[in-house]
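Bumping my old thread because nobody answered last time. Still need a sequence for this structure:
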């Protein structure tokens, strides 16, 4: 295998990097269950797991139901303090024997590796997602990246089996430059894939904010020099360890903006529940000031203000709707309202993915839609930007509508229908905006739970074939491959 050439920063890039200052962080992380099994955790944290929970979890060690084999256990001191008064937060990070009762699920959800032309990079849309690190300050039990966090073996498109690798600057930057050069030379689309310019990158993992300032800065500078127009930093550290967003980090962002003012920068936060950022009293009630405004946890509020005060940077929140965590319309209403009031934007809510053991965490798709719809009653237009998305192999797919009534004359719709719409389509986006209509199934957790009730599928969600080349998209649905019921539906709509 040819070794990549060492990456050499430009003079502008080097000047930016030389001014980066490192912070000092004391996350006080407890890793694994052993400290609780052996009573080695800090004395005030030992009761985080009851004696019964410890006994039940110990009994699973070394078996196929070992919870730590499925997903490593990890928590910060800051998050533990929040969890003491929040059952929702406990559910996010506490291992539970029930999570391995059913281990059905995919080792590579959405066959993401089909879209990995370079190790550590997923190039599925006009943007790329990079795995820059394989851990976080704490670990959510429902994590969509459990295969990366747990360093599991994944079957690749070519049949080989290996752990997902991390992105490296000397490998990623040449790919971006080569792809974009080919696009420019060919009139705006890639000559082979038909894809447009790779203009946006999401730094993810794991959690990009676990990296130190110098490493984050190195990525920012290299991506900017490669011609990337917009960079996202994905993180849950604002919940797990908000002290990470300190003066040194914000100063680094300021220097980056001064050096590369043409590059957009976006912080993608992950708050599942308002308990992660709103302050509580001893009885567990949200603290309000004299005017009735809910107060933020001091460290979290300071970090959020530091980001939101920079007008050239956007702050977004996205979160899955998870069983026993935020499947609560009131909680989601507070989350959306208070996050927007603090200067952020509500980006997406997600249905749970088909990860290993997803049945322990996922809320039924139709239930999630109803919860989000109910939560947005009473919110203003600027507070209700978030849509409900479920990630299909073809791209992000909106759960656009759920009806309580059937379509007259259409067999299979008697109990109502659910409408999927492709929002973000892989590759050259041949099916973007197309819809799929299925008969309702209130128990459905994933697409396959609707396979026996597909009524109309111009989006081709139920005609899957793995892509033939890394980065390309499966072809659009054809008339021959459309689902039964299309003609009936069209006729019904025509005469309605």
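Sorry it took so long. Here it is:
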């Amino acid at each position: 295998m040819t070794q990549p050439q060492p990456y050499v920063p430009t003079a502008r890039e080097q000047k930016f990097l030389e001014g980066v200052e490192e912070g000092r962080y004391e996350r006080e992380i407890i890793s694994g269950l052993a400290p609780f099994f052996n009573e080695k955790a800090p004395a005030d944290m030992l009761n985080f797991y009851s004696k019964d929970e410890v006994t039940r979890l110990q009994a699973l060690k070394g078996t196929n139901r070992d919870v730590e084999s499925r997903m490593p256990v990890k928590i910060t001191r800051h998050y533990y303090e929040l969890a003491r008064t929040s059952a929702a937060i406990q559910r996010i990070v506490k291992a539970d024997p029930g999570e391995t009762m059913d281990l059905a699920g995919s080792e590579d959800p959405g066959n993401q590796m089909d879209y990995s032309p370079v190790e550590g990079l997923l190039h599925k849309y006009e943007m790329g997602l990079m795995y820059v690190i394989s851990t976080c300050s704490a670990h959510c039990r429902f994590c969509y990246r459990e295969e990366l966090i747990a360093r599991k073996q994944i079957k690749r498109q070519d049949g080989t089996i290996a752990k997902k690798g991390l992105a490296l600057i000397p490998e990623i930057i040449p790919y971006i430059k080569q792809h974009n050069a080919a696009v420019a030379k060919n009139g705006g689309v890639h000559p082979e894939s038909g894809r447009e310019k790779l203009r946006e990158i999401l730094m993810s993992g794991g959690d990009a904010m676990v990296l130190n300032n110098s490493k984050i800065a190195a990525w920012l500078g290299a991506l900017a020099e490669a011609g990337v127009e917009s960079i996202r930093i994905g993180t849950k550290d604002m919940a797990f360890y908000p002290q990470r967003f300190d003066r040194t980090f914000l100063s680094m962002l300021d220097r980056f903006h001064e050096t590369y003012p043409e590059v957009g920068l976006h912080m993608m936060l992950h708050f599942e529940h308002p308990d992660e950022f709103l302050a509580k009293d001893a009885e567990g009630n949200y603290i309000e000031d004299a005017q009735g405004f809910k107060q933020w946890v001091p460290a979290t509020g300071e970090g959020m203000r530091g980001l939101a005060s920079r007008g050239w940077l956007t702050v977004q929140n996205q979160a899955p709707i998870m069983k026993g965590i935020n499947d609560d319309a009131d909680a989601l209403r507070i989350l959306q309202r208070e996050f927007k009031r603090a200067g952020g934007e509500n980006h997406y809510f997600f249905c749970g993915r088909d990860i290993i053991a997803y049945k322990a965490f996922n809320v039924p798709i139709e239930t999630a839609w109803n919860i989000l719809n109910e939560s947005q009653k009473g919110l203003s237009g600027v507070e209700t930007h978030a849509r409900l998305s479920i990630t299909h192999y073809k791209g992000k797919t909106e759960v656009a509508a759920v009806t309580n009534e059937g379509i007259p004359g259409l067999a299979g719709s008697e109990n109502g229908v659910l409408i999927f719409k492709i929002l973000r389509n892989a590759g050259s986006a041949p099916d973007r905006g197309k819809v799929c209509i299925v008969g309702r199934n209130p128990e459905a957790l994933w697409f396959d739970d609707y396979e026996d009730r597909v009524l109309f599928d111009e989006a081709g969600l139920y005609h899957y074939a793995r892509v033939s080349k890394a980065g390309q998209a499966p072809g659009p649905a054809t008339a021959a491959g459309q689902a039964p019921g299309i003609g009936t539906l069209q006729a019904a709509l025509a005469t309605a």
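The first helix runs from residue 11 to 18. Let me know if any region looks off to you.
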